[in-house]
Design a protein that fits this description.
By secondary structure, this protein is mostly helical. It has five domains: 94 residues, no CATH class; 42 residues, no CATH class; 73 residues, no CATH class; 72 residues, no CATH class; 39 residues, no CATH class. Helix content is 40%, strand content 4%. The protein is built from 16 helices and six strands. The protein has a two-stranded antiparallel sheet with strand order 1-4. A two-stranded antiparallel ribbon has the order 2-3. A hairpin with an 8-residue loop joins strand 2 and strand 3. The termini are far apart. The N terminus is likely disordered. Bound molecules: zinc ion (3 copies). One zinc ion binds next to helix 8. One zinc ion binds next to helix 4.
């Protein structure tokens, strides 16, 4: 499968991750989303229970209603206009036509003319619009008039994420991006136009997500994350995922793990978390998971997580992991891991105690267990018989007995 959008300079680790993620994306999902790498758009199927919505009932409206029962099948904009009208919904639907502004851009009405039309009300490019006005003909009559032919394209907008036709020859941008650049420049938000071209978001189209201009790995991660989220039964609408893609583009990150979550909404953070979890599970085995300090128990055939990161001493952390591996199969039920996590929390408290009370912070097992031949800096050594024994070990006697306090010494 090829997902190439922008060639990315990725290290060996990222190359491996890219291959792993790409191989996990199913062709059937790419087909469902109508993914075409050169186009770089995910098209959300309208009739899909989890990804789609109901088409707005207002004539001429291209938007989707995601709350059919509440808003009577109207999109948010039409719902706003209906409520402002203050009439029953059926009466509103009988007369309403989508004449208010909408997002999207059509080509000129003249057959095969690639230039964008001026507006929905004046559906011609500027050259054909001028000809039509001069001719005095209606739109339909002008289109059928002999001698009205398609004109050559002015080229594509130079914003990296945009594939719209330019409406003038001498402008580098489509109309939407030209206007946006003008507004943002006036408000002092454009420090460098080259950077702006790479980072500004594409024009929103309902039901689509534009991934143009994003690194190949990030594109693969987004598609795979969406696939796994859909497979799990979760709903994901295009307007939920789009801001995250725009944030990644603005931050110029190479992978979903590099996205700075500061300032993101709760939903966006959730999407990053679920996408990352899905990717982390790829190729994971209990053996590979054991090396981490936070275990995803799905890898072990269970649910939940185990967290060892609060145990600062490596020897104690590894001992806790070994114990958890033995303990997990003994547990049953949805919350089985909570008992194991409770044991790990106790060890974390013990770890904290070592950290605070020992001069060496309990960094090595031998030092903690009194296996060193020289006494600690305080001249005290602690009994190694029991983890919980607070007593000081004997400082004289036989070489083996001085590791234990009088209460715990094996033959004492
Ligand atoms: Zn609508
Ligand atoms: Zn035209
Ligand atoms: Zn553009």
């Amino acid at each position: 499968m090829s997902l190439l959008v922008v060639p990315a300079q990725v290290g060996e680790e990222q190359s491996l991750r890219l291959r792993l993620v790409q191989e996990a994306i199913e062709p059937s999902f790419l087909k469902l989303m109508q993914w075409d790498p050169p186009v770089g758009r995910l098209i959300f199927p309208k009739d899909h229970v989890q990804l789609g919505g109901v088409a707005c009932r207002v004539e001429g409206c291209r938007k989707t209603s995601f709350k059919f029962a509440v808003a009577h099948g109207l999109c948010d904009t039409c719902d706003f206009h209906w409520q402002a009208a203050g009439v029953p919904v059926e009466e509103f639907l009988a007369t309403a036509r989508r004449t208010w502004r909408y997002v999207g851009k059509d080509a000129c009405c003249v057959r095969d003319c690639p230039r964008p039309c001026k507006s929905a009300k004046e559906p011609f490019c500027y050259a054909h619009l001028h000809q039509q006005r001069v001719s005095g003909l209606s739109v339909q009559d002008f289109v059928r008039r002999s001698g009205v032919v398609a004109l050559s394209s002015f080229g594509i907008c130079q914003v990296l994420a945009c594939d719209r036709e330019k409406d003038y020859e001498r402008t580098p941008y489509c109309m939407a991006h030209r206007n946006r650049l003008s507004v943002e420049t006036r408000s002092g938000r454009v420090a460098d136009e080259e950077t702006w071209r790479r980072t500004t978001s594409p024009v929103t189209i309902t039901g689509e997500i534009n991934l143009r201009g994003l690194p190949e790995l990030l594109v693969a991660e987004i598609i795979f994350g969406l696939q796994e989220r859909t497979r799990s039964g979760a709903k994901t609408k295009d307007h939920s995922l789009r801001p995250l893609c725009d944030t990644a583009r603005r931050q110029q990150v190479g992978s979903i793990t590099e996205i700075d979550l500061a300032g993101l909404t709760r939903l966006q953070c959730q999407l990053v978390a679920t996408f990352t979890t899905s990717i982390d599970r790829l190729g994971a085995t209990p053996e590979s998971e054991r090396l981490k300090d936070v275990w995803d128990l799905v890898v072990f055939g269970m649910g939940g997580h185990l967290q060892f990161s609060d145990i600062s001493q490596s020897w104690l952390r590894e001992a806790a992991k070994a114990w958890a591996v033995e303990e997990l199969p003994q547990r049953r039920g949805k919350r089985a891991h909570t008992t194991v996590q409770s044991g790990i929390r106790s060890l974390a408290k013990f770890s904290e105690s070592l950290r605070l009370q020992r001069d060496d912070h309990g960094v090595t097992f031998d030092a903690w267990a009194g296996r060193t031949s020289s006494p600690s800096s305080t001249g005290r050594r602690f009994c190694s018989r029991r983890v919980s024994c607070p007593r000081t070990a004997a400082t004289s006697g036989s070489p083996s007995s001085d590791r234990f306090c009088a209460a715990c010494v094996p033959w004492g």
